[in-house]
Amino acid sequence: MHSLLNCLLDNLAHGILLVDKEYRVVLWNGWMERVSGLNKADVIGKKVSVVCPCFVELKFRRMLMDTIVRGQNCFFAGILHHDFVSPKNVEISQEAKRQNMQIEAFYHQGETFALIQINDITVQYRRVHCLQNMIKRLEMDVKAVKKAEERARQSALYDPLTGVCNRNSLFERLEYVMNQAKRAGWLVAVLFIDLDGFKIINDMHGHITGDNLIKEVAVRLKQTVRQTDIVARFGGDEFVVILPNIYDPAEANYVGQKIRHSIDEKFNLDGKIVSITASIGISLYPSDADNVENLLKKADQAMYSVKAFGKNDCQFASTM
């Protein structure tokens, strides 16, 4: 029976060592021999700190003492402590092992021992580590996909130079607010804005200055209207502002004049002082048109009428 138990202990898939109250090793199983390269004959009777270097550390010695004297059990995770039994071929493999260690009291014939069990979790640790790396890569991929989607959405809906709505987005939003206004009984105003003399500025100061002017005009438009209003770049130096829910045409004229005065203020573009004005045509839903294309067309025609009669003013399509 004794031989059978020794055979069983030696073939366990984890390490077993038993330490007496003098901290000497009294049992050292086959797993410990295979991993450490130390035979039982070399180990039995020696201080555990000599054959198992981790017990040189004070905290482990104290835990051994707590187990033997007070019967306290302890557990140590290899994730924090790496290995408790150094593999005999560690210098060759240079691979850090991961082991868990459990210390518990063992009582035999009135004497207390510290039963130490060591499990190698290196394979499980590698799997967890690979899984963690895979999750990190997946998270990075998800972030990259979201960024790509956001860039595609920005490109589809917004003007790349100014950041305001582009022409496609303008058509969709105008149709949406017209449907809302139809149900609520509101008016929708479309302000078609064209900069007067932009080509001259572009030719005189260059395209970079021209682009900067377009960007600054977009900023002033957004600062002049409400957050609920819609600012869009129609193309070139043409902008459209939509006032989604107004009750009186005079509100559209008030906003148009505010925009005109805002643009009339001089621009400082990287040290170049530039002046420009705007001609604005205004159309109203539902009185001027009941679809997007015609509503924009009416505002555009009103804007050209302003151009024809001296520029830098606002005009309703209904007064043409």
Order of helices and strands: HEEHHHHEHHEEHHEHHEEHEEEHE
Please list the strands of the largest sheet in the order they lie side by side. Answer: 2-1-5-4-3
The gross shape turns out to be rod-shaped
Q: Kindly, what is the distance between the CA atoms of the first and last residues, rounded to a whole number of angstroms?
A: 114 Å
Mean pLDDT: 90
> pLDDT under 50 segments (min length 5)?
none
What assembly state would you assign to the polypeptide chains in this entry? single chain
What structural category arises from helix and sheet content?
alpha+beta
Count of DSSP-assigned helices: 13
Rg (CA only): 41 Å
Largest sheet: 5 strands, antiparallel
| Helix content bin | 40-55%
DSSP E strands, number? 12
What percent strand?
15-25%
